[in-house]
From TrEMBL:
<dbReference type="InterPro" id="IPR012349">
    <property type="entry name" value="Split_barrel_FMN-bd"/>
</dbReference>
<dbReference type="InterPro" id="IPR007396">
    <property type="entry name" value="TR_PAI2-type"/>
</dbReference>
<protein>
    <submittedName>
        <fullName>Transcriptional regulator</fullName>
    </submittedName>
</protein>
<dbReference type="Pfam" id="PF04299">
    <property type="entry name" value="FMN_bind_2"/>
</dbReference>
């Protein structure tokens, strides 16, 4: 990720919050694959596990799952299987859940992004005209080693996938949908649970997916929200977006103000 210091976000709780608020990540791999492309990407929702939420150094672990029929899944399974070909352990003659040798990348992007017209730069445009269009956005990139849970006969795979789909459903139902009701609190809808579906049906679906667990070793964040501009231009950008009257534009205006305040606080 190209990071100018003015746009870089290094506060881990902020990066973790963006991932949890917008968990649909794009996982990208660069793996030699005999019957498909070298570089592949898939959009899948992720969970972020952190042992200590107050930690300023812990990067955490991402959990997700992909369709077994996905060519990217097949490339990862093939890569892990080839990595194990040299094993001398007879008990491991068949491929088993393991880490990819290659690094993987997962990109998370906030839906609050927008084109910025030079007309919003009310301080610089009238005086020098030295302004150009740009795009405001916020994103997090996570890099790390990925363990692939692909052996359907393995108890480890079954345990991982059961936990994964249950936790992901709970996060989406409660945190994203706001379904936090219960038998004792009917003021809100109660969340859908995996247990609401027949066990046999869930068992069949689990055979059609593989799990992926990524130990993050590098986490980079970028909030490009006009911080590079002067105070007058930032104010013009915020007013300009507010004047558009859309939900996305209002969200960008809010972030422009927040990031501007952070910049002033660090000056």
């Amino acid at each position: 990720m190209y990071l100018r210091s003015v746009h870089a976000e290094k506060h881990l709780p902020t990066l973790r919050q963006l991932i949890r608020d917008f968990p649909l990540g794009v996982i990208t791999t660069a793996i030699p694959y005999t019957t498909g492309p070298f570089i592949q990407s898939s959009h899948i929702p992720f969970l972020l596990d952190v042992e200590d939420e107050s930690s300023e150094t812990e990067l955490g672990t991402l959990r997700g799952h992909l369709a077994r029929a996905n060519p990217q899944s097949k490339a990862m399974i093939e890569a892990v299987s080839k990595k194990q070909d040299g094993s001398n352990d007879a008990e491991q003659a068949a491929p088993f859940n393991d880490f990819l040798a290659e690094e993987v990348l997962v990109l998370f992007t906030s839906p609050v992004h927008h084109y910025v017209t030079p007309k919003f730069y009310t301080e610089t445009k009238p005086t020098t005209g030295k302004v150009v269009p740009t795009w405001n956005y916020a994103a997090v990139q996570a890099y790390g080693r990925a363990k692939i849970y692909f052996d359907p006969r393995s108890e480890e795979t079954g345990t991982f996938l059961t936990q994964q789909i249950s936790d992901l459903s709970q996060h989406a139902e409660m945190s994203i949908m706001g379904y936090t009701g219960s038998a004792t609190d009917t003021s809100r809808p109660s969340p859908w649970q995996v247990a609401d579906s027949p066990d046999k049906y869930i068992g069949l679906l689990k055979k059609a997916i593989i799990g992926i667990e990524i130990e993050i070793d590098r986490l980079e964040g970028k909030f490009k929200m006009s911080q590079e501009m002067g105070a007058g231009d930032r104010a013009g950008v915020a007013r300009g977006f507010q004047g558009l009257g859309t939900e996305t534009a209002e969200g960008v205006a809010k972030l422009v103000k927040e990031r501007g305040d952070l910049k002033k606080g660090s000056d």
